[in-house]
Fold this sequence. Notes:
Helix content is about 30%, strand content about 20%. The strands form 3 sheets. Strands 1-4-3-8 form a 4-stranded antiparallel sheet, with helices on both faces. Strands 2-5 form a two-stranded antiparallel ribbon. The chain has helices spanning about 10-20, 60-75, 115-125, 135-140, and strands at about 1-5, 25-30, 35, 45-50, 50-55, 100, 105, 150. A hairpin with a 2-residue loop joins strand 6 and strand 7 (about 105). The chain is of the alpha+beta class. The protein is globular. The protein has one domain (about 1-150): 2-Layer Sandwich (Alpha-Beta Plaits), CATH 3.30.70.560.
Amino acid sequence: xxxxxxxxxxxxxxxxxxxxxxxxxxxxxRSSLWQTAPVGGPPQDDFFNAAxxxxxxxxxxxxLRALLAIEARFGRRRAGRNLPRTLDLDLLWIDGVTxxxxxxxxxxxxxxxxAFALAPLLEVAPxxxxxxxxxxxxxxxxxxxxxxxxxxx
Length: 153
């Protein structure tokens, strides 16, 4: 999850609560907040990022629909890639599962190369591995540039 418009901290803390309120979802853990430099797109403010570990009975597509509804309630407008946003909720990883649908790819196709997503993910799922390759996300993170990301107090 990420936000770089408005009160980023308040948005993410509220989004944690919104996710926990989805029918069929249990919020198991949440990461620290991380401040991260934007990747791609026009010049813009830094993001606050975080990750949640959810337990759910929902199909991945149904979970994604619920997450997109939360984004919309926070004023998210999808006008293009890598633009500033009030809230971005991605379904990054499902333990042992891959999904390849037109509008949903799990794990996220670029997760393995994004320190700003792996650092919070590994806080809530330290033993996570890429279900496609079996590679440890911790090992992948150790090989990435972590400049521009820092854990917030």
